Amino acid sequence: MAQLTAVYYVTDSEDGLEQKAEKMATGMTAKPWIEMPEREKQESMAYKGEVVSITRDEEYGQGSLVTISFPVAYEVPDFPAILTTTYGRLSYEPGVKLMDLKFSDDLVKRFPGPAFGIKGIRELLEVGDRPLTMSVAKGAIGRSIDSFHEQMLAHAYGGIDIIQDDERLFEHDWTPFEQRVPAGLAAIAEAAEQTERAPLYVVNLSGKTFELKERAREAVALGAPALMLNVYAYGLDVLQGLREDEEIDVPIFAHSSLTGMVTRSRNHGISSRLLLGRLMRMAGADAVLFPSPYGRIGINMEEALQVAKFLREESPAHLPAFPIPSAGIDLASAPSVVDDFGSDVVVNAGGSVHRYKGGVKEGGRALARALEKFSS
pTM for the complete prediction? Predict the structure, then answer.
């Protein structure tokens, strides 16, 4: 039987913690009632969660780490079922935070993981070991498709490696999907005649959930070289479904929008390292944007490094994915991103590129200059 182990940070006092942990284990799985026939009790108890350990936490805070093992009755790669089992009812409990989920080898292999990962994205860009640069097509909301084309052109001439649609650029009359993708690709092709290099254009995928696969297929048919999904607006299983569709054969960038509502509390919710690191990678993200530790909305450095670790650590089942710490990164702090996260990172400095005194093109070039010392 496949096994799933959950690690919780619990801020209750040590008094009664063993009893609380046992209630967590049984309440989330099998909890036979007194009147149940003995045979049925035994059948039910075979799938009861088991408290593995309770230890005082010396690093994260003043609480305890409670580790519970959950047998998985059927080996189905189903994130909604897994999260409901491990944190569904517990999400109502104050002072309980889900820190990590660890999967047995037979279970983790049932999830797809990245199709391209770090190596595949580097190959698409023909860029070796240096950190990649990224900017966002900001200011496109409410403006014409011609304006969008000009902005994409400036990014491409500026030497940016990855140009991403704003995550709030949805389906509007001014930049409809069917025009936006060709306009972006035309700008990249135009600049490539002079620069002899083509950035990766990441197209924001939006719409109603049950239309997303068809929208993604349309984007790929239009030539979209990569897609972006606001994963937690839709769900991990939607990301997994896109990844497993053979017609959607491009890298998928995962955006962290909305995760703050469950990650920000130190004592409640789900950790960033789990939501943005381990689970995003298992579901199939090739790269993940998450709040950087350098800006006002960012997560702390320790947690950000844990996200990157979970995305890139060695795994026999899944390719490593690119971490993209985002928000609050300017040209002065861009080298610190590489110092802190290593060279297998995407430096996303969209706001600074746009605000640069010489405009977007010069902003892109300035970002490349800021990272020159990391070029091989």
Answer: 0.94
